[in-house]
């Protein structure tokens, strides 16, 4: 498995390098055999590996071989670095797990494949919510296939830990702190967390949503409005985050997200802020929602939904065989059978219409219901931490500020001011 340092080249540098290699004619032919797809992804935890195995299986039934290009590292920062290195050196994979505004950034490099042939034949425009279809297109043509909808604003809870501590399941931030105090007093870890920038940002955005609500979240973390970023509600968000920090154990630095989830699964810790890929870990461990674990909207955010849509971005291939296999991959991803099997393992819900919901558990059904309700209430918002809301340069700078705050005694006021400055990064 490839492991690459996580600093990502920013947009302008990448563009310059791509232009250089393109002008030098360095886009090499693929080394793939006849019916093969090479897919770069970062789904390496227990639940994730089971999910990606479904795609491999589906393709095998269509005679297409799977060449795995897995790059470990939650939220895909390492994978993004590996992808840039591959494209720059002229050997783009068939597809890569890329999502949100980054799809447009890659489109601007001129390295993407057009998969309209399959999208048109299968009527993707009528199967996908229009906002999702728009993200999957570059200049009006499909270049990516979506696999799911993850909800990020969840709190994962071990009810046995709550019981031992005499605490109750929290719905508000005040209740969250009450439960955390009781769990800590009972000698367990109140909050399972891994000190990695994307995990810090995951907690931060759920707290921002809980403190300020969806309108504040949109103004601050989607529109990057400087006054909102530096304003009193953001200061309050950081104050809340500072208090949350005190419930994290000393060994959290660098811990992977799935190991933090394991702490909740085995009762070492009581709660975790994480998107519903965490459910994939509970499910893979044979745990049942409602009894073995609880999926609760992050405190104070029940009426809102931070979405995170995974997709496979298709890269230009010169060989006809590769192009054909790529279309088979795109079609497989959008098939109802795959969307069902994949999402049952992944913890997410299908992104396209026409997938039966009968086999999905109570967390997934809640997600489906809340997605619809939040869409109507304009509180369905893109996840900043998971690359859905802003471009990669601004996102990287914002996440740097959040992590600095998590790892120092920086004041909330300074953090909010630094956030407003970071958001201007292009
Ligand atoms: C998210 C991604 C999920 C999940 C998670 C942990 O950004 O959308 O599919 O894999 O990171 O790596």
* CATH level-1 class of the largest domain: Alpha Beta
Q: Give the number of helices.
A: 19
Bound molecules: beta-D-galactopyranose
The name of the CATH topology of the largest domain is D-Maltodextrin-Binding Protein, domain 2
Strand arrangement, major sheet: 2-1-3-13-6
Give the name of the CATH architecture of the largest domain. 3-Layer(aba) Sandwich
Gyration radius from CA atoms, angstroms: 21 Å
Beta percentage is: 5-15%
Number of strands: 14
Oligomer: single chain
**What does the average pLDDT come to?**
93
Largest sheet: 5 strands, mixed
Which features characterize this protein?
426 residues, alpha/beta, D-Maltodextrin-Binding Protein, domain 2, 2 domains, 14 strands, disordered N terminus, binds beta-D-galactopyranose, SBP, Probable sugar-binding periplasmic protein
Structural write-up:
There is one protein chain. With 426 residues, this protein is an alpha/beta fold. The chain contains 19 helices and 14 strands. A five-stranded mixed beta sheet has the order 2-1-3-13-6, with helices on one face. A hairpin with a 2-residue loop joins strand 4 and strand 5 (141-142). Helix 2 packs antiparallel against helix 16 (336-346), helix 8 packs across helix 9 and helix 12 (232-245) packs across helix 19. The chain binds beta-D-galactopyranose (GAL). Residues 42-43, 48, 74-76, 150, 257, 277, 308, 310, 386 line the site of beta-D-galactopyranose. Keywords: Signal, Transport. Part of a binding-protein-dependent transport system for a sugar. InterPro entries: Bact_solute-bd_prot1, SBP. Residues 1-34 form the signal peptide.
């Amino acid at each position: 498995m490839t492991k690459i340092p996580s600093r990502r080249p920013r947009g302008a540098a990448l563009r310059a390098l791509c232009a250089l290699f393109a002008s030098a004619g360095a886009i090499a032919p693929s080394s793939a055999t006849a019916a093969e797809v090479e897919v770069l992804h970062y789904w390496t935890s227990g639940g994730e590996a089971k999910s990606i195995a479904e795609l491999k299986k589906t393709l095998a039934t269509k005679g297409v071989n799977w060449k795995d290009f897995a790059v470990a590292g939650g939220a895909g920062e390492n994978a993004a670095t590996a992808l840039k290195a591959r494209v720059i050196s002229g050997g783009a994979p068939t597809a890569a797990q890329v999502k949100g505004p980054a799809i447009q950034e890659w489109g601007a490099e001129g390295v993407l494949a057009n998969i309209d042939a399959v999208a048109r034949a299968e009527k993707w425009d009528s199967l996908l919510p229009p906002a999702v279809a728009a993200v999957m297109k570059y200049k009006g043509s499909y270049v990516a296939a979506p696999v799911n909808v993850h909800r990020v604003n969840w709190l994962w809870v071990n009810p046995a830990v709550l019981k031992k501590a005499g605490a109750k399941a929290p719905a508000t931030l005040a209740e969250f702190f009450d439960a955390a105090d009781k769990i800590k007093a009972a000698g367990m870890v109140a909050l399972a967390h891994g000190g990695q920038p994307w995990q810090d940002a995951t907690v931060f955005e759920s707290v921002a949503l809980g403190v300020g609500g969806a309108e504040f979240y949109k103004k601050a973390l989607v529109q990057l409005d400087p006054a909102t970023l530096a304003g009193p509600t953001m200061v309050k968000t950081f104050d809340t985050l500072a208090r949350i920090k005190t419930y994290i154990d000393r060994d959290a630095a660098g811990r992977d997200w799935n190991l933090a989830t394991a702490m909740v699964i085995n009762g070492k810790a009581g709660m975790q802020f994480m998107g519903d890929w965490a459910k994939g870990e509970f499910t893979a461990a044979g745990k049942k929602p409602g009894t073995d674990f609880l999926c609760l909207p992050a405190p104070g955010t029940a009426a809102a939904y931070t979405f995170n849509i995974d997709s496979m971005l298709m890269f230009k291939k010169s060989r006809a065989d590769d192009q054909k296999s790529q279309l088979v991959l795109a079609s497989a991803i959008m098939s109802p059978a795959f969307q069902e099997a994949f999402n049952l393992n992944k913890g997410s819900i299908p992104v396209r219409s026409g997938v039966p919901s009968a086999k999905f558990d109570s967390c997934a059904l809640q997600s489906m219901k809340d997605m619809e309700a939040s869409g109507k209430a304009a509180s369905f918002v893109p996840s900043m931490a998971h690359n859905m809301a802003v471009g990669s340069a601004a996102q990287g700078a914002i996440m740097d500020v959040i992590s600095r705050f998590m790892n120092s005694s920086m004041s909330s006021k300074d953090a909010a001011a630094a956030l407003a400055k970071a958001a201007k990064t292009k």
